[in-house]
Amino acid sequence: MKVKIIAERLQIAPKEVSRLLERGEVRLLDVRGEDERQLARIEGVPELDEKLIDEILSGWDRATAIVLHCHSGFRSLDAARFLIENGFTDVKSMSGGIDRWSRDVDPSVPRY
C-alpha cells in the first residue's frame, strides 16, 4: 500500500504535462530507447541518455521541474525515483506514458 501511495504522488497526467509545457514550466524527458522513439515521439522532447544524465546531475538546479515519460509509465517512475534520490525535488512520471499522451493529448502520435 505504501509503495502505491508513493507512486501516485510521483505521477502526473498527460493533460497536465501539456499545460505545464505550454507555459514553459517543466522539462519533459523521454526515458525510452531509440527503437521505441522511432515508433513514436513527442516533438522536441530529448532522450534521457547517459550524456544528458551526466549534465542533469552535474549542472541542473535540483529544483528544476522535470517530468519523465516512457511507453506506459513504469520505467519513468524508476527514473523519477533515481533523480529524487540524487536530490531533485520536483520530479514526476507521466502516468500512462506516451501511450496515454497519444489518447489524451495528441492523437497524431502513433500508438504501439
Describe the structure.
- With 112 residues, this protein is α/β, with parallel strands linked by helices.
- The protein has one domain (2-104): Oxidized Rhodanese, domain 1 (3-Layer(aba) Sandwich).
- It contains six helices and four strands.
- The chain has helices at 2-9, 14-22, 34-39, 50-59, 74-85, 97-104; strands at residues 11-12, 27-30, 66-69, 91-94.
- It has a four-stranded parallel beta sheet.
- It starts with a helix and ends in an 8-residue tail after the last helix.
- The relative contact order is 0.22.
- The mean pLDDT is 94.
Task: Indicate the CATH architecture.
Answer: 3-Layer(aba) Sandwich
What is the mean pLDDT? 94
Oligomer: single chain
- Please give the count of helices: 6
The CATH superfamily label reads Rhodanese-like domain
Spans of at least 5 consecutive residues with low confidence = none
- In the CATH hierarchy, the third-tier topology is known as Oxidized Rhodanese, domain 1
Strand order of the largest sheet: 1-4-3-2
Largest sheet: 4 strands, parallel
Strand content: 5-15%
Total strands: the figure is 4
* H/E topology pattern: HEHEHHEHEH
Rg: 13 Å
Helical fraction equals: 40-55%
Could you tell me how far the N terminus lies from the C terminus, measured between alpha carbons in angstroms?
30 Å
